[in-house]
Amino acid sequence: MNSASFFALAVFALFVLSSSTTPVEGLCSRPSQTWSWTCVKSSSCNNQCKSWEGARGGSCVSGECRCVYNKCNAPKLCSKRSRTWEGGCRTKTKECDKQCKNKENAWHGACHSSGLFSTKCYCYFKGC
User: Fold this and answer.
1) In sequence order, which ranges of 1-128 are alpha helices (DSSP H)?
2) Around Cβ 57, how many Cβ atoms within 10 Å?
3) What is the pTM of this model?
4) 61: β partners
5) Are strands 119-126 and 108-113 parallel, antiparallel or unpaired?
6) How far is CA 29 from CA 71, 73, 83, 111, 117, in A?
7) Which residue positions does the secretion signal occupy (predicted)?
8) pLDDT for 52-79, tens place per residue?
9) In what order do the strands lie in the sheet with 119-126?
């Protein structure tokens, strides 16, 4: 290959690469507000970020579920301990979620540690 052909190929490759990789502005990543355990499965984190937090997606980063938002000022959820849940919550996140939605008009609910051996049901609300 002569130098003129090489130069033309290099210019073409540079054109293709620069036109196909446009940066995405405004995307922000922050820790999930509803994930309550060590993150090992990015697909689960992704699903929860999308469905629970209204994020664009999510993935596990160093054991933490991180959600990606279209805008840096995406609204945060606020959590409050459930007013209607009684007892522990260790393995009952689905029930906690259902109760928060149905009885407390929350966006979602999840069990979180509230001490060394204690877990409580927390409800998540949009804009408190």
Assistant:
1) 3-20, 42-53, 93-104
2) 16
3) 0.55
4) 64
5) antiparallel
6) 9, 11, 31, 23, 31
7) 1-26
8) 888 899 999 999 999 998 877 666 778 8
9) 77-81, 119-126, 108-113
